[in-house]
Amino acid sequence: MPILSVQTDTLTTVERAEDVVRSGRTRDAETVDRMERLLADHAAVDSILG
């Protein structure tokens, strides 16, 4: 069972996530809050983090 289902291959997904982190877009408080809500609503964060 996949932990995260995406429309692209794993490498592309990881590269895109790294680009977001490197670009600094996550420094915006509103973006971080939205990402937190999306993860809480759609991911088993506790299970992923162990």
Give helix % range.
Answer: 55-70%
Strand-and-helix sequence, N→C?
A: HHH
**pLDDT < 50 stretches:** none
On the 0-100 scale, what is the average pLDDT?
A: 81
Specify the number of helices: 3
Radius of gyration: 12 Å
Largest sheet data: none
Please state roughly what percent of the residues sit in beta strands, choosing from under 5%, 5-15%, 15-25%, 25-35%, 35-45% or over 45%.
Answer: under 5%
- Overall geometry comes to flat
- Helix/strand-derived category reads mainly alpha
**End-to-end separation:** 16 Å
Nutshell version of this structure?
The protein has 50 residues and is mostly helical.
Keywords:
50 residues; mainly alpha; 3 helices; 66% helix
Structure notes:
Helix content is 66%, strand content 0%. It is mainly alpha-helical. It has three helices and no strands.
What's the layout of helices and strands?
Layout: H1 10-23, H2 29-42, H3 45-49
